[in-house]
């Protein structure tokens, strides 16, 4: 019993066997129902042809009844029909009666005619005609026990009347096939939906193996094992970045403290500037390490207006020290969006810092908060060349490799935060000079 159950489960997990099994069921149902329907239609067509033929014969016989001048009726059976209604042929018979039911003419009720046994199966038709002001009913009957095969009539009329049913049957079979295949590959669709959620920030997701067909299971298993290896590689890389950044912080702090004990001079100021730049790079590496491990709560919301206000307040001293200004514009009301406040603050801070770096002296950087969940950061700098608008978001990319005031990580952090928040980031040049960076986030539902 156990071996049989295992074999049944093994076969049912096979995609091919699922399709074959469901097709067998569908074909079995059609094989049972379709012959019954066709048999009923065939018999109905034969009966209809028989009734039409007998009625036509009755009408021909009615035309042979003639009224005489003395008021009597005569009946002259055509030579072409004498053989059909003869006792020797024994298949057809007719009775002609008046309105009171009296028998006027008959093909079988006369002296010497054989008497039909009640057990014989008789079927026929009748027509009524008014002859000389008197109603006359002509009855024609056929002995079904001696019916001839009327193949030509059946074939010519059967397909004309019944052929239309072929289209609905094919449509039903097509719909059945669609349902069968949809049910059979439903686990694959579910696995593909799970695979679409896998990304650098979601390396823990694996393809489901429940109800996966046996033929596909090796592929799913191999993909999951590959994802395990990739996750291990990402984890090692992230851990290395975070550890390296943490290890560099302490030496830089000690080095800054020692340099500050030296006397004033150009060399001391240059060393402090270099250490500040190195500290900024280390801080950005830590941000990247944290960003790579960030998993957002779908229900988490943040006030974009408050985040931008905090960034402007924090970075204003830096702008003033460089004889530049920074202003907050746009919506005065809270703008609630889906996102993590800390990560949003880091992204907008990097945009603002980048704008202050490139804007001209004695000009202002604008941070404009829109009620639609957008943030625009504008500067008065040289702008961004068309060919560089995607390159600037790559890690460690810098237009001028000789400059030592940055490592090209700030805008890559902005892109990473945007990707994690399902947001978009775009850059374009302003007509009057300078660049405008735009971040667009999803608004949170009211009451969230």
From TrEMBL:
Instruction: State the reactions this protein catalyses.
Output: ATP + protein L-histidine = ADP + protein N-phospho-L-histidine
Q: What is its main location?
A: membrane
Q: Which PROSITE patterns match?
A: HAMP (PS50885), HIS_KIN (PS50109)
Provide the Histidine kinase domain boundaries.
243-445
First-level EC class:
transferase
Q: List UniProt keywords, sorted A-Z.
A: ATP-binding, Kinase, Membrane, Nucleotide-binding, Phosphoprotein, Transferase, Transmembrane, Transmembrane helix, Two-component regulatory system
Asked if the Swiss-Prot or TrEMBL record annotates the protein with the keyword Kinase, the reply is: yes
User: Could you say which EC number(s) this protein's record lists?
Assistant: 2.7.13.3
Which GO cellular component terms are attached? plasma membrane
Q: Where is this gene product found?
A: Membrane
Superkingdom to which the source organism belongs: Bacteria
Listed InterPro entries: 2CSK_N, HAMP_dom, HATPase_C_sf, HATPase_dom, His_kinase_dom, HisK_dim/P_dom, HisK_dim/P_sf, Sig_transdc_His_kin-like_C
Indicate yes or no for the key word Nucleus.
no
Q: Which topology term describes how it sits in the membrane?
A: Multi-pass membrane protein
Under the heading Pfam families, the entry gives: 2CSK_N (PF08521), HATPase_c (PF02518), HisKA (PF00512)
A molecular function annotated in GO for this UniProt entry is: ATP binding
| Limits of the HAMP domain | 182-235
Q: Which residues cross the membrane?
A: 20-42, 162-181
Would you tell me the protein name for this molecule?
Answer: histidine kinase
Q: Which organism is it from?
A: Bradyrhizobium daqingense
């Amino acid at each position: 019993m156990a071996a049989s159950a295992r074999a049944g489960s093994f076969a049912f997990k096979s995609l091919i066997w699922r399709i074959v099994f469901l097709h067998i069921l569908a074909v079995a149902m059609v094989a049972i129902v379709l012959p019954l329907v066709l048999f009923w239609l065939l018999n109905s067509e034969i009966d209809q042809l028989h009734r039409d033929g007998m009625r036509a014969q009755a009408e021909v016989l009615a035309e042979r009844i003639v009224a005489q001048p003395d008021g009597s009726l005569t009946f002259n059976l055509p030579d072409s029909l004498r053989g059909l209604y003869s006792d020797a042929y024994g298949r057809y018979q007719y009775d002609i009666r008046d309105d009171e039911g009296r028998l006027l003419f008959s093909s079988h009720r006369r002296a010497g005619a054989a008497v039909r046994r009640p057990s014989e199966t008789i079927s026929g038709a009748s027509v009524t005609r008014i002859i000389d002001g008197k109603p006359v009913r002509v009855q024609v009957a056929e002995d079904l026990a001696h019916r001839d095969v009327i193949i030509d009539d059946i074939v010519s009329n059967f397909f004309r009347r019944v052929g239309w049913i072929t289209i609905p049957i094919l449509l039903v079979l097509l719909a059945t096939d669609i349902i069968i295949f949809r049910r059979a590959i439903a686990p694959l669709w579910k696995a593909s939906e799970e695979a679409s959620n896998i990304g650098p920030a979601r390396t823990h997701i694996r393809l489901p193996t429940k109800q996966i067909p046996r033929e596909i299971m090796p592929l799913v298993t191999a993909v999951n094992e590959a994802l395990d290896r990739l996750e291990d590689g990402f984890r090692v890389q992230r851990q290395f970045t975070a550890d390296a950044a943490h290890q560099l912080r302490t030496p830089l702090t000690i080095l800054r403290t020692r340099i500050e004990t030296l006397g004033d001079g150009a060399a001391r100021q240059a060393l402090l500037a270099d250490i500040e730049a190195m500290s900024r790079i280390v801080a950005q590496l830590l941000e990247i390490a944290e960003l790579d491990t960030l998993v957002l709560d779908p229900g988490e919301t943040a006030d974009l207006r408050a985040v931008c206000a905090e960034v402007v307040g924090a970075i204003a001293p830096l702008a003033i020290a460089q004889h530049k200004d920074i202003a907050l514009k746009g919506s005065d009301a809270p703008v609630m969006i889906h996102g993590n406040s800390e990560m949003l603050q880091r992204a907008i801070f990097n945009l603002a810092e980048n704008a202050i770096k490139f804007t001209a002296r004695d000009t202002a950087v604008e941070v404009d908060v829109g009620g639609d969940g957008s943030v625009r950061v504008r500067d008065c700098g040289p702008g961004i060349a068309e060919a560089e608008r995607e390159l600037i978001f790559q890690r460690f990319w810098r237009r001028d490799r000789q400059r030592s005031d940055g490592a090209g990580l700030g805008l890559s952090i902005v892109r990473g935060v945007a990707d994690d928040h399902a947001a978009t980031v775009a850059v374009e040049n302003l007509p009057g000079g300078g660049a405008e960076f735009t971040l667009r986030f999803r608004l949170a539902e009211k009451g969230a």
